[in-house]
Amino acid sequence: MDYSSDRYIEDLSKAIEIDPTYANAYRSRSCERSNTNDLAGALADAQRSVELDPFDASSWWVRSNARARLGDLDGAIGDLGQVIARVNDPPELHRHMLRRARLYVTKGDFDRAIGDFDRIIADEKRFPVFFHERGRAWHRKGDLQRASDDYTRALELDEWHLSSTFQRACVREARDADAVLAIADYRKAIQWDACGLRAWLESDSDVPPWAARGSVGDDLRSLADSLGTGLQAGGNTEQALSTVNAAIERDPSSAYAFYLRGRLRAKSHDRDGAIKDFERSLGLAKPDVRWLPRMELKILKD
Q1: What is the value of pTM for the model shown?
Q2: pLDDT at residue 6 above 50?
């Protein structure tokens, strides 16, 4: 806990000593305690806030956050229901419903999550995030067609929506008939965030690539920059290959480097060399991300 948090909590505690019925002080202290990972203290303060001011939606909101942090999803969802019942402003209502829908998804209650997303989208159809989030719920439920439709709608609203590009690629890969379309989406996602994908490819994490942005070294950023240049029309493919070769010399176990070289060789019409690199990448990659070189091999060998 840093000094500023310490001091803030101390000041809030003094305010509560002066006025033990000051609900807003309990709410604020609950939030600050949550920020400093004092989750039990955060929940206790949130509970007191609800007791003192049950008609204020923010009291229930704060307790919902505390319960969610402690893993009490049912309690958090119930509190969000109280928030939603007390809110009339559409943007704020949508924000709370989005939060509840995400908790439903985490819990595995996809039908209720989709119900919340349906209500949001019925009111507001301009924002890609709502279609993307509903697509994730359909995806988790196993309805790949509806998931693909929602990801596509998100991309129609924002063609740079990386999350939807990547998730649609996953859906298309799962449907064998869409393999070529899956590759197109994967390539687009990789071109936008090559560094993030590299960090994910060689980790044990199931965190998607855009969440890993900024987690790789300068040499790999240079590698990704060279890749982007080499893969673009008129780019310097030879320079990009030289950079990738140097990366492989530094780290011959890098699945990502072999994958990049395979793509560069494919662009240079070196089909045999590309196949060898993709096969090497396939052997080195973590199990959960072997789809990447595997799909490239499928395209080259078909």
Answers
A1: 0.67
A2: yes
Per the model's pLDDT, the better-predicted residue between 272 and 263 turns out to be: 272
- 53-64 pLDDT, tens digit each: 999 999 999 999
Find the range with the poorest average confidence among 49-63, 147-161, 282-296: 282-296
The yes-or-no verdict on residue 71 having pLDDT over 60 is: yes
Query: What are the tokens at 87?
Result: 């809110």
Q: Is the pLDDT at 260 greater than 90, yes or no?
A: no
Answer for the pair 62, 27: CB distance below 8 angstroms, yes or no.
yes
Within 8 A by CB and 6+ apart from 5, the residues are: 32, 35, 36
CB atoms within 10 A of CB 276: 15
Task: Output the DSSP codes for 88-137.
Answer: --HHHHHHHHHHHHHHHHHHT-HHHHHHHHHHHHHH--S-HHHHHHHHHH
Judge residue 195's burial from the number of C-beta atoms within 10 Å of its C-beta, 0-12 exposed, 13-18 middle, 19 or more buried.
buried
Of 274, 295, 300, nearest in space to 183 by CA: 295
Nearest to 97, CA basis, from 52, 48, 137, 149: 137
Tokens 């395209």 sit on residue: 299
Q: Which domains does the chain have, with CATH numbers?
A: 193-302 (1.25.40.10)
pLDDT level of residue 210 (50, 70, 90 thresholds): very low
DSSP 65-99: HHHHHTT-HHHHHHHHHHHHHH---HHHHHHHHHH
Q: Which stretches of 232-270 are DSSP H helices?
A: 237-250, 255-267
CA atoms of 179 and 202, how far apart (whole Å)? 23
CA angle 171/152/182 to nearest 5° reads 40
Residue located via tokens 């950079």: 243
Residue 114 CA, distance from chain mean position: 18
